[in-house]
Write a structure and sequence with these properties.
Layout: H1 2-25, H2 29-42, E1 56-67, E2 82-89, E3 94-96, E4 99-101, H3 108-120, E5 124-126, E6 129-133, E7 147-152, E8 157-162, E9 168-178, E10 195-201, H4 202-208, H5 212-240
Parallel strand pairs: 1-9
Antiparallel strand pairs: 1-2, 1-4, 2-3, 2-10, 5-9, 6-7, 8-9
């Protein structure tokens, strides 16, 4: 009976010592929480895709408009008062919008105008519009919502296109206007380009473009231009009253 009691007490002593040793060796629960908290803070709250240099290319292009002037356009209003320039790629028999890769040292706006000129052969410039944007005004940083802003040349769309070998192309789209009275310039295209440019009415442009993504961008550009043009006309009417 005495031997059993000693054995039982020894077991209890060993168990207590073992628990004490484990507690000393095991990090406190607070450390695990802090480590988890720091890990959580290092990750974005939003789904994020990141591209490192060499795995992406920046590109820019334009929806190029041209006004239709009187006498032909005397009764034209809205979309019928404009034409859009689209490209016929002769090799693949595709109808496209003008765009191209950004050169080193260029801004995206410069790329959009240069590539549009090179591929369409029409001198042009970015055309300020009344349009939605999430870009804040200079010096303002506390606005995080979409605003409708007058006379801006921000991108109207961004296309993200997957390329081979896991690379990505980001295409920024702008609205441009052909220079007043500008004629088509000869030999503006690069040696590897084989485009024929055509100004067509807006309905034809929407119908003829090969890819749905291009049609969606053109429709957005038409809506912006018509809305901006209508705002200008109302402002002109108000100034005459």
């Amino acid at each position: 009976m005495f031997r059993v009691t000693v054995t039982h007490n020894a077991y209890r002593v060993i168990l207590i010592c073992a628990r004490h040793l484990v507690r000393r060796l095991k990090p406190p629960r607070r450390f695990s929480f802090v480590q988890h908290f720091r890990t959580a803070m290092a990750a974005s709250h939003y789904p994020t895709t990141q591209y490192l240099a060499g795995n992406f290319v920046l590109s820019a292009g334009c929806i190029l408009f041209r006004r239709i002037h009187p006498p032909e356009s005397a009764s034209r209003t809205g979309a019928s008062a404009f034409e859009i320039c689209i490209l016929h790629e002769m090799t693949k028999d595709e109808w496209l919008l003008p765009k191209g890769r950004k050169d080193r040292g260029e801004t995206l706006e410069q790329t959009a105008v240069r590539e549009t000129y090179e591929e369409t052969s029409y001198p042009c410039h970015l055309w300020p519009q009344r349009m939605p944007t999430r870009a804040p005004a200079p010096g303002v940083s506390n606005i995080h919502r979409t605003q409708i802003v007058d006379d801006i040349t921000e991108p109207l769309a961004v296309t993200v296109r997957a390329l081979r070998q896991g690379r990505t192309k980001l295409i920024f789209w702008y609205i441009a206007l052909a220079e007043e009275g500008a004629e088509k310039v000869a030999r503006s295209q690069m040696e590897n380009e084989n485009f024929e440019s055509h100004f067509v009415d807006t309905e034809t442009a929407l119908r003829r473009l090969t890819f749905q993504s291009d049609r969606d961008i053109v429709q957005q550009a038409i809506d912006i231009v018509i809305g901006s043009n209508n705002s200008e006309e109302k402002a002109d009417e108000g100034s005459l009253l």
